[in-house]
Structure prediction request, 116 residues.
Amino acid sequence: MKIAIARVYDTTDKPKGYRVLVDRLWPRGISKEALQLDEWCKDVAPSTELRKWFAHKPERWESFRVRYLNELKEKRELLRPLRALAQKRPLILLYAAKDPDRNQAVIIREALLAMR
Prediction:
């Protein structure tokens, strides 16, 4: 199963595969045509409350990760189609955050890989 992660603002080397935006909000300054996306799964994104609490503060990352994984346990039915896609073809999880190592796509990938 191949699951890649890509930032929506990166213009170099767009990985090939089924492209899914996993942000709750549409990325600023990007048109739908420019994003070249196959699906927008905003319901799989962190809750508004959790997203606002995290505020991309590195010191909150580990706590955010644990809380978000707990949220994703409640969203398993939303994750199943993404996992099924990833078993058939490369899946690209798109995110808008600045930090490539601390964003929801990283955690969604972790959750998808851990599913049975």
